[in-house]
Amino acid sequence: MFKDPKIIAGLGLLLFLLLRAPVPAKQTVQPADQLPRILEKTRAYCDRLERMSLYFVCREQIDERQFDPPIKLFSLGGSGRTTRVALEYDYQLVRKGDSIEEKRVLLKENGRPRHEPDAPLKTKLYKHRYLVFGPLGLLSEYWQSRHVYRYLGEDQVDKEKAFVIEAQPSGSPEPNLLYGKVWVREKDFAIVKIEWDQRSISDLEAVRRMARSIGHDATPRISIVGVYGVEKNGIRFLSELTVHEDYDSRMGIHRASQTEIRYGDYKFFVVETEVRY
Q1: What is the mean pLDDT of the chain?
Q2: Distances from the Cα of 210 to the Cαs of 18, 72, 115, 221, 246, in angstroms?
Q3: What average pLDDT does this structure show over 223-236?
Q4: For 108-160, what is each residue's pLDDT tens digit?
Q5: DSSP states of 240-276 as a string?
Q6: Cα diameter, the chain
Q7: Measured distance CA(70)–CA(210) in Å, rounded
Q8: CA 35-133-277 angle, 5° bins
Q9: Helix (H, G, I), strand (E, B) or coil at 30
Q10: What is the C-alpha end-to-end distance of the chain, expressed in Å?
């Protein structure tokens, strides 16, 4: 059983990516029995994902930008230095039993063709691993007992209805506990989107330093959102991950960094449930 959500969710953010204020989901009236049913069904989905043998490859395209000084959003012009890292990989994941292996072949780096087998992840701002298992850290049987959940309402993801629930610590957060918001597709209870709460996965001091550099009243508003927009055998696979590091103050909203990752051209060789005795 996976019990380390930092490995499961794969969001090894560096110290300056932290804390975001939650954005309200579209609200509706909560049916009295809606939440227990959602939790039961998502637990079953996670149990199936946890027992899956997987072997797939896909294209991973990463565009990472850091702004020095942070840029003011919704304004014309702007000055300063932008540091950009653009990477394109062939990404492979093989999972059988308790063994998980990721491999990458670097195809392009900052627009230049490359062919680098067994390449490291050359991002500057954060590292990520095993993102396909992101739902487990929030809704698996093991972690459900360590969260308290709230039904927020309904929304749409890719034009399909989804329930929105919030997972927060049930008490004082234990080490490695992740929390945030989850979008659950209504028709089959597959997890189609996750917004991780930064307070659960990073260090706070670096973000405080960045906020102080913008203004004494600056508030971090950092968003990490994964969309699971690819489906195979009832399991959802990541199609995009975005990280926006914003700070809100009376001077406006400033962006310190942004990362956009796209996954496509999936080729599936094994997506099947393991038989365990």
Answers
A1: 84
A2: 11, 14, 37, 12, 10
A3: 95
A4: 999 999 999 999 999 988 888 999 999 999 999 999 999 999 999 999 999 99
A5: EEEEEEEEEETTEEEEEEEEEEEEEEEEEEEEEEPP-
A6: 63
A7: 9
A8: 90
A9: coil
A10: 14
User: What are the domain boundaries of the chain?
Assistant: 16-52+65-76+132-266
Tell me the whole-structure pTM to 2 decimals: 0.84
Query: Is the N-terminal amide bond of 69 cis, ω within 30° of 0?
Result: yes
Sheet holding 160-169, edge to edge: 112-116, 99-109, 81-96, 52-72, 252-273, 240-249, 219-227, 191-196, 180-185, 160-169, 147-157
Q: pLDDT by residue (tens digit) across 83-108?
A: 999 999 999 999 998 899 999 999 99
pLDDT tens-digit series, residues 61-89: 999 999 988 888 877 666 689 999 999 99
Please give the single-letter amino acid code of residue 51.
R
Amino acid present at 35: L
Q: Determine contact, residues 223/246, Cβ cutoff 8 Å.
A: yes
Strand pairing partners for 127? 12
Percent over 70 (pLDDT), the chain: 81
Q: Higher-confidence residue: 271 or 18?
A: 271
Task: Report DSSP state, residue 48.
Answer: H
Single-letter code of the amino acid located at 164: V
Strand partners, 221: 246
Burial code (b: 16+ CB inside 10 Å, e: under 16) for 81-120 equals: eeeebebbbbbbbbbeeeebebebbbbebeeeeeeeeebe
The position carrying tokens 């491999």 is: 103
Number of H helices, E strands in the chain: 5, 15
Can you say whether the dihedral through the CA atoms of 133, 137, 143, 144 is positive or negative?
negative
As a whole number of angstroms, the distance between CA 198 and CA 220 comes to: 10
d(CA 268, CA 229): 15
Which pLDDT does position 22 carry in this prediction? Answer: 40
